[in-house]
Amino acid sequence: MTDSVFTRRYEALRRMVDRRLATLVRRGEPADLRAACRYVLSGGGKRIRAVLVLLSCEASGGKVQKALNAAAAVEVLHNFTLVHDDVMDNSLTRRGKPTVHVTWDLNTAIITGDILLGVGYRTLLREGTRHTDRLVRLFTEALLDVCEGQALDLAFERRTDVTVSEYFRMIEKKTAALLSAAAEIGALLGGGSPQVQAALRRYGHSLGRAFQLQDDLLDVVADPKGLGKPIGGDIVEGKKTFLLLRAVSRAQGEDRDLLQRLVKAGPDALHVLIPENSGDNDKSRRHALIRLVTAVYTRYGILDETREEIRRNTRNALRALDVLRPRPSREMLSQLAEMLVNRAS
Amino acid sequence: MTDSVFTRRYEALRRMVDRRLATLVRRGEPADLRAACRYVLSGGGKRIRAVLVLLSCEASGGKVQKALNAAAAVEVLHNFTLVHDDVMDNSLTRRGKPTVHVTWDLNTAIITGDILLGVGYRTLLREGTRHTDRLVRLFTEALLDVCEGQALDLAFERRTDVTVSEYFRMIEKKTAALLSAAAEIGALLGGGSPQVQAALRRYGHSLGRAFQLQDDLLDVVADPKGLGKPIGGDIVEGKKTFLLLRAVSRAQGEDRDLLQRLVKAGPDALHVLIPENSGDNDKSRRHALIRLVTAVYTRYGILDETREEIRRNTRNALRALDVLRPRPSREMLSQLAEMLVNRAS
After folding, report:
1. Which of A62, B139, B242, B304 would you label with B150, given CA atoms 20 to 30 Å apart?
2. Across the interface, do A125 and B140 touch by the CB < 8 Å criterion?
3. Are the C-beta atoms of residues B64 and B54 closer than 8 Å to each other?
């Protein structure tokens, strides 16, 4: 499958999802709550989770139309988490637009998230299927995992002894759980056998791990224009990424000291490591810290190690697809995995 | 049925619900999130919504055990709304204990609410029933209504032209929707006919209206010791209760001016109506405002009018029970309605 065939098909599915999302918030009051819900759902993005539902359905032998409501529901669930996470992380922009709590206020953001979750379940229930029970169960377990993952991520901020294996447990909940649920839901609705369902679940799981690792890597190596946010944000916030945790365990001497201070400072990293009395402005202090830490990462081969870890997870994802019958949609899933880990932003 | 028989049976059901609630949050991490969820679910309360599920199940011909998970799920959903509402209303205590965002912090409160909602769905799915689809649908529509009701309530704070009929639409969503869903869910699980399900839904709806009106009334006439919060809180916050909205439309001259200023000031009522330079302290300024407004309510017969409106809704609730077969549980539902509107706190 050529790249342009992949891209055309992906875009067709993405537009299908966007059109369905646009129909979901017709009802509901008051008006500004409806406006906030629409603002979130029309915010664009790659719609990876929804497309994953659709492709998994097709790769399991079903028609994508059979899974379109479930695909939209999964995407709504994802957007619910974004709205609440942005409050908790105090993020000011999302996909280049001000976040809900910035555009409206805290209360609107809390309740918009809550409403979106209800809209997600309502949309899921629109799938006329005899598998409702299982469908709602998968959706609910993914919801719980994503919330727990976010809570672990927040708890990591205050901890100084986070291990790499704890990191993986966190991203498996925060990121991989919804991708694996999306793939399994698609397989279920597509009429896939239990073996096919399990395979697609594994695919989503590995893809999710690779996806989050790539996110961590891009914070350091991305093209800043495409990223939609300043580069090095994780470093400046002392975030316990795979890069930082691996580097802490590999670095020696002064390098190790620097990283341990970074881990300890967490969100206060900039303040603690590059004191304000250095005479520089905020921007150049940020750059100084990012340069320092990136140099350590490079010195100990952390970037290459991360790339290798991403490749390993991508290979696992691709291998999981082996049990599926060869179909264009299986090929699409392969290329989706490649796309996610080769993205430059 | 004597009062003591009613009370004994009610308490037995309430304890049954409490025991089930105590088992729901065994899993999950991190530990302090689990602790916050347990803190909320062990906070006591009358468990009216859960008991309503159980009694409706029995009054429809089923055994209460068949609805115990659904009863717990409805109670968890209610507690989810309390945690988020307390953030949005900036409430410092709930049932005499500090709220979640006070005991922990804002982020913990947001995510605890989110997790509870997931726990609610998970618990609902434990009902082994062929009605899962309908059950999840009722639960989800109630969730959406409750959120919209809360959003309307918040929007009312900033509005000066709220009508009594808008007030009723708000409380029907914020309060009555979950009570009617609880009754209908119980009827569904108890094997009630569509007629019985509709009757119990109507019962819950009228009960919910009466319950909220009673809440509004108690703010003015309750025994302060039993209320668990200072009396007159709604007045001091300029809340658009049934009492205030009816009084605005009945009062004349100076009385009307006072109430209109109260409506306009909303949450700033105390500051605007009893200026700080009056020389009094905060407590006596509160009392002054409460005395003023209560006097107007009394002058125009608003308290009696509210009592009559409560009786009217209670009669509707009781009348809805007529189609049910005479059973002790039907009698319990009658007495439940009487209990809720005769409570002094």
Report:
1. B304
2. yes
3. yes
* pLDDT tens readout for residues A76-115: 999 999 999 999 999 999 988 999 999 999 999 999 999 9
SS3 string of A197-210? HHHHHHHHHHHHHH
Q: Calculate the alpha carbon distances from B88 to A59, A145, B101, B109 in Å.
A: 45, 25, 10, 11
The one-character DSSP state at A326 is P
Per DSSP, which regions of chain A are E strands?
Answer: 93-94, 97-98
Structure-block tokens of residue B322? 């007529």
pLDDT tens-digit readout, B143-171: 999 999 999 999 999 899 999 999 999 99
Distance CA A290, CA A232 (A): 6
| Residues A196 and A67 sit within 8 Å (Cβ to Cβ) | no
A137-158: b or e for each residue (b if 16 or more CB lie within 10 Å)?
bbbbbbbbbbbbbbbbbbbbbe
Of A188-197, A303-312, B264-273, least confident by mean pLDDT is B264-273
Domains and CATH numbers, chain B: 3-236+300-339 (1.10.600.10)
Residue B121 to chain A, least CA–CA distance (Å): 7
Indicate the length of chain B as a whole number. Answer: 345
Residue-wise pLDDT for B22-60, tens only, equals 999 987 788 889 999 999 999 888 999 999 999 999 999
Q: How far is CA A123 from CA A76, A135, B201, B213, in A?
A: 9, 12, 24, 34
Q: Which two tokens stand for residue A321?
A: 């697809």
* Best residue in A110, A124, A162, A170 for a mutation probing chain B (most B CBs within 10 Å): A110
Q: What chain A residue is nearest to B112 in terms of C-alpha separation? A: A147
CB-nearest partner of A121 from B122, B136, B147: B136
In Å, how far are A152, B115, B161, B315 from B36, measured between CA atoms?
A: 14, 10, 39, 40
Determine which helix (DSSP H) or strand (DSSP E) holds B98, and give its type and residue range.
strand B97-98
H/E stretch holding A219 reads helix A194-221
Tens-place pLDDT, residues B73-101: 999 999 999 999 999 999 999 988 999 99
Instruction: Report the alpha-carbon distance of residue B162 to residue B184 in Å, rounded.
Output: 30
The ipTM of this complex is 0.94
Distance CA A176, CA A153 (A): 14
Structure tokens of B59?
Answer: 């009054």
One-character DSSP codes across B314-340:
HHHHHHHGGGSPP-HHHHHHHHHHHHH
Tokens 């125009």 locate to: B300
Query: If you write DSSP's letter for every residue of B198-240 in order, what string do you get?
Result: HHHHHHHHHHHHHHHHHHHHHHHHS-HHHHSS-TTHHHHTT--
Listed residue (B44, B56, B38) closest to B15, CA to CA: B44
How far apart, in whole angstroms, are the C-alpha atoms of residue B153 and residue B155? Answer: 5
CA distance B159 to B240: 9
- Chain B neighbors of A120, CB-CB under 8 A: none
| DSSP H or E run through B100 | helix B100-103
CA distance A225 to chain B (A): 31
Contacts of A101 (CB under 8 A, 6+ apart): A86, A87, A108, A109
Residue A210, amino acid: A
Q: State the Cα–Cα distance between residues B258 and B291, nearest whole angstrom.
A: 12
CA distance B169 to B162: 11
Q: Which residues contact B39 (CB under 8 A, 6 or more apart)?
A: B97, B100, B103
